[in-house]
Every structure is written in structure tokens, then in C-alpha cells.
């Protein structure tokens, strides 16, 4: 008889830290250049005037001003339009 149990896979190894995604500065708030406005996975919100989007889809303020959010229709590659939230700094 075997004296060692069969080596199965571990089932309790899924404890990782959260990504801290979401909106960091809300509509009507005063921001300065370079501040993080939205941290997101993929382009769920789009960068409007006064903002820029970085490599990991984080939206930053490109100028000093006040944050605002608008609903827009974004054209996809196929020609179909999809609703998106546009982040602007004015």
C-alpha cells in the first residue's frame, strides 16, 4: 500500500489583491494637470476634451479644470455604435 496521498491540485490559492479600479474624481470636482480621473480595464469610458488616455486605459487630466461626464455614442470597427461615457475637463 502507498504511504503518501496522491498529489492533487490545490483549491484554496485564489487570494489576490483588488485592482482598485473605478472613478477617482467625480463630476464637478476641481482637478489639476496629470491627476487620475478613471482607472479602468479596457475603454469602458472614453477620453474627451482636456483629458488623455494612457497605456493601461487610465484617463488623466491634460489641463486644470472641472471634471464632467457625458453620454456619447461611439462607432465601433464594424460600424455599429455603442453607448459610452465621455470624461472631459473644462
CATH superfamily: RNA polymerase II/Efflux pump adaptor protein, barrel-sandwich hybrid domain
Number of helices: 0
> Quaternary arrangement of the chains shown?
single chain
The class by helix and strand makeup works out as mainly beta
Domain module count: 1
CATH topology: OB fold (Dihydrolipoamide Acetyltransferase, E2P)
What fraction of the residues are assigned to beta strands by DSSP?
A: 35-45%
What is the string of SSEs from the N terminus onward?
EEEEEEEE
Given this structure, which CATH class is correct?
A: Mainly Beta
Shape: elongated
Total beta-strand segments: 8
pLDDT average, as an integer?
A: 93
Helix fraction by DSSP (H/I, runs of at least 4): under 10%
What does this structure look like?
This protein has no helices and eight strands. The chain starts with 21 loop residues before the first strand and ends with a strand. Helix content is 0%, strand content 41%. The protein has one domain (22-89): RNA polymerase II/Efflux pump adaptor protein, barrel-sandwich hybrid domain (OB fold (Dihydrolipoamide Acetyltransferase, E2P), Beta Barrel), CATH 2.40.50.100. The strands form two sheets. It has a four-stranded antiparallel β-sheet, with no helix packed on it. A four-stranded mixed β-sheet has the order 2-7-8-4, with no helix packed on it. The radius of gyration is 21 Å and the shape is elongated.
Outline the fold blueprint.
Blueprint: E1 22-23, E2 30-31, E3 36-39, E4 45-47, E5 51-53, E6 59-61, E7 65-75, E8 81-89
